[in-house]
Write a structure and sequence with these properties.
The chain is an alpha/beta fold and 148 residues long. The protein has 7 helices and 5 strands, in the order E-H-H-E-H-E-H-H-E-H-E-H.
C-alpha cells in the first residue's frame, strides 16, 4: 500500500532547531523550522508525526539550557500538535539491517515514519534520507513549495 500524502513525519533536528531559535541558544541561526512547523500546523487534513525517540532526544539535548519547567511546557506543546510514534526494538532491528544509509539515528526515524505510512519527512538532513524508499524528504525552508 502507498504512503499517505497527508502524513508528515518531522525529524528530531527540526524540533531542536525550532527550540534553539525560540530560546535564542545560538547567536546566529538561520533555521526555518519554526515557520515550517507553524505552516504545517495550519494545513487542514495534514497529520504530523514525531517519534517517542524525538521526545527523549529533545529533552536530553535542551533541558540543561532551558530548564525543567520550560522543557515540560515544550513537551506538552509537542504532545498537543503531533501524533507520537512509539520507538521499539523492532524499529532498532529494522534500522540496523537497512543498508541504504550510514546514519543509524536517521534510519530509526525513517522506520518510525514508515510505521504510520508517512509520504513526507521534514528534515535538515535531506541527503541522509535521499536513498530511502517510499518518502519525499524536504528541508523546512522548502515546506511551502512541497506541501499544499
Amino acid at each position: 500500500m502507498r504512503n499517505n500524502e497527508n502524513h508528515i513525519f518531522v525529524d528530531t533536528n527540526c524540533i531542536i532547531a525550532h527550540l534553539v531559535d525560540k530560546y535564542k541558544l545560538l547567536k546566529h541561526t538561520e533555521s526555518h523550522s519554526g515557520n515550517a512547523l507553524h505552516f504545517l500546523r495550519s494545513r487542514n487534513g495534514k497529520k504530523l508525526f514525531i517519534s517517542s525517540l524525538t521526545i527523549a532526544q529533545v529533552t536530553a539535548k535542551l533541558q540543561p539550557y532551558i530548564g525543567a519547567e520550560n522543557m515540560i511546557s515544550e513537551i506538552t506543546d509537542l504532545l498537543q500538535f503531533f501524533h507520537i510514534v512509539e520507538f521499539n526494538e523492532k524499529d532498532i532491528q529494522a534500522a540496523l539491517t537497512n543498508p541504504l544509509s550510514k546514519d543509524i539515528e536517521d534510519l530509526y526515524q525513517y522506520e518510525m515514519s514508515q510505521k504510520v505510512k508517512c509520504f513526507y519527512v521534514m528534515t535538515n538532513n535531506t541527503k541522509d534520507f535521499s536513498a530511502l524508499a517510499n518518502i519525499v524528504a524536504f528541508a523546512p525552508s522548502k515546506v511551502r513549495k512541497i506541501i499544499c
